[in-house]
Amino acid sequence: MRLPFLFAGFVLGACIWWVTRRLYGNFGGYTALALYCFSPAMLKACVAPQPEILAALLGLAAMLWVAEGHRSQTLPVVLAAALGALVLLFACYSFSPDAFSYLFRSSAAFLNFSIDPARRFFATLANGGITVASCAALLLYLAARPSRYFGNTAPFLCALILILLVMTGAPGSPWLWSLPFLLTFIGGVFADAYDSPRGRLALAAAGTLVLAQAVLCILSLPSLA
User: Fold this and answer.
1) Interval 52-77: pLDDT, tens
2) Are 15 and 64 in contact (CB under 8 A)?
3) Cα(8)–Cα(159) distance, integer angstroms
4) Cβ contacts of residue 12 below 8 Å, gap of 6+?
5) Beta-carbon neighbour count of residue 1 at 10 Å?
6) C-beta separation of 181 from 12 below 8 A
7) Hey, where are the domains in the chain?
8) CA-based torsion, 28, 42, 11, 85: positive or negative
9) Which of 40, 99, 103, 214 is most buried when burial is the number of CB atoms within 10 A of its CB?
10) 10 Å Cβ neighbour count for 77?
11) Burial profile 154-189: b = 16 or more Cβ within 10 angstroms, e = fewer
12) Contact at 8 Å (CB) between 99 and 90?
């Protein structure tokens, strides 16, 4: 039962590493991957059968990597894939409108925005290293103009939207979907800091944060069982 979810978590981690490594270099990629590997929320999603890890935005991230240099074509391809999925769903219902009328006859598709998921995540001690890294990345992003480019801004905006999203009509954890984007943002901004005149200091600080997150994650493992 757990193998498909473990595999999905492994593939997602590999995707994050490839994307961040190609965008930001080796150090940025390994920073994002290390924080991913020691994220208690991700570990729990990978060992507990649930759809959240399967829905973590994997396809778009992989396409952005594959389509490097042709990102203007990514959105049409995603839209075409989504349209194809809708047609397939429609066909499974013998082309009956009941496939879509359910959304209008129930609250399953209701969404809302709240700061509670973000507050719970960042206030959890087990996520302390990621929390400090997120704050540091945000400060560097706002303070350093070279860090405010598309490669950093896009994952930041995606993480900001998803971590505030709440599914009120059906069980779901959109905040978990935001973590790959958040870690990508952290890896990108830290990579810029590594290339600065104080790169060694930035590397030492990032290494300390990753080590702290690893320790907190290991200490939290009994509570994940």
Assistant:
1) 666 667 555 555 655 556 556 555 65
2) no
3) 20
4) 36, 53, 56, 58, 180
5) 6
6) no
7) 3-69+109-224
8) negative
9) 40
10) 15
11) bbbebbbebbbbbeeeeebbbbbbbbbbbbbbbbbb
12) yes
Phi, psi of 94, deg, nearest 5: 55, 35
Alpha helices in 52-149 (DSSP H): 58-66, 74-92, 98-105, 116-123, 128-143
126 vs 137: CA distance, rounded Å = 19
Give the β-pairing of 165-167 and 111-113.
antiparallel
Q: Specify the pTM.
A: 0.78
As given in the structure block, the two tokens for residue 40 are 């208690």
Q: How far apart are CA 62 and CA 177, in angstroms?
A: 15
Per-residue pLDDT band at 146 (split at 50, 70, 90): confident
Longest dimension (CA), the chain: 63
Q: How far apart are CA 208 and CA 212, in angstroms?
A: 6
CA angle 185, 220, 50 (to 5 degrees): 70
Instruction: Give the length of the chain.
Output: 225
The pLDDT, as a whole number, for residue 33 is: 93
Burial of 62 per CB tally in 10 Å (0-12, 13-18, 19+): middle
Per the DSSP assignment, residues forming a β-bridge with 165 are 113
Cα distance between residue 12 and residue 58, in whole Å:
6
Considering only CA atoms, give the Rg of the chain: 19
Is 51 a residue whose pLDDT tops 70?
A: no
Q: What pLDDT score was predicted for residue 165?
A: 84
